[in-house]
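Example record

One chain of 77 residues, shown exactly as stored in the release files.
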Amino acid sequence: MTTTDSIIIKDKEELIPFVNMINEICKVIDDDFVNDWITTKHNFLGKTPLEEFNENGMVRVFDLLTLIEQDEADVID
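Predicted C-alpha cells for this chain:
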C-alpha cells in the first residue's frame, strides 16, 4: 500500500502563483525531486519552501533558486 502526503496551500487565491512557483522550481530541481524539495526544511529559509510560500509568498523561494543556480547554495542543506 502506498501512502501520499498532501501539499496544501493556505489560500486558494494563491493557486496560480503556486503553480508558477512549481514551474520555476522544475527548471532548477529535478522533476522527480520537487515534492520532496518543497517539503524539506532549507537553512536559507529556516523552513520548508512550501511553508515559506504559504507564509510570505514566493520571493525568498525564488531567491533560493537563484542561489542554487549560481552554485552559491545547496539544493538540500
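Notes: The mean pLDDT is 92.
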